[in-house]
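We close this part of the discussion by returning to an individual protein. Part of our work consisted of pairing the sequence of a single chain with a tokenised description of its backbone. No coordinates are needed to read the tokens, only the vocabulary itself. The amino acid sequence and the backbone structure tokens for this protein are reproduced below:
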Amino acid sequence: MFKLQDFRTSRNVCEEKKLNFINIYKTKWDEIHYKSDVFRYRIDNLRERIVDGKYLLQLNPHRSTKRRTPEQIHDICQPFDKNKFNFTKVSRDEIIFTFTEDDDEENEHAILVNVSPISRYHSLLCPLLKRCLPQILTADSLQLGIDIIFLSDDRDLRVGFNSLCGLASVNHLHYHLFIENNVLPVETVKCNHIKGPVYCLSDNYPVPAFCFEVTPQTVNPSGVIFKLIEVLLNKSIAHNIFITSGQRVTGDSKGEEIVRVIIWPRKSSSGAKQLSAFNVAVCELSGWFPVYDIHIFEHIHAEELESELKKWKYENFAELCEEIKELY
């Protein structure tokens, strides 16, 4: 078990005794992938296709046929149920490593391989694993996700969150960790200012979303962002969240990259996931489509992708913006 401060960040690269988060993560993931049988399928050399110069498609048919059956979800604040599958029940062979922010093992966070991965290095961050928290975002877990982006010092790392009724398939607090070297559309799209630290994606993006810009100097970013999340929870609005390196929210490509925290309010996906050509969860909303069907992979057009995304947009986004203004 590590401590969070054991890892080297871009701000203390001279501390050679510190550990490199991303190297440990990749090395251990590869070891589990190639030397154990915990994965439901191997994930090597996925076929890729870029649509309209921006949308990333990856063909992964096994994910629809060999993954665990998703849990039935009916409420975005559904309580944790110890009798259903949760991440305390996984094999120890699925654990990449655990770490804490103090000396209390009850506060242990875990990074697990996703045994039905979307892509290579797809894993799960499970904050406070032993506390058995439901899949309801907390300010502390959001801060942990942001901290991991900064300590990794690798722009290919992304952190994603699907709420209950937002395509989360397990009701136990977790975030998705992805490593992807393609630049995704949501990382460069310009944003419009709403008020204070809150922006929204420009109108030419298929699904409206809020966006916050975070740097290492930002004070209490999770606390600032969580005020908006609380509105979604109180109004029972399903949501997806993506934490990623990207251009400044003004779209200034000459400035240094910052971290974008993007929040999509969305229509509820209440009930079990419908496994078709692809689902619309956090990856798809970012412009990254894991596709299950080879015909669709080879022939789908940008207009069809955008049409599918738009089916899940939150219709009262303009009204929600007005409410959010009152918070900041």
Summary: The radius of gyration is 19 Å. The helical segments are 21-35, 62-65, 139-152, 221-234, 282-285, 294-299, 302-310, 317-325. Residues 60 and 292 are 5 Å apart (CA to CA).
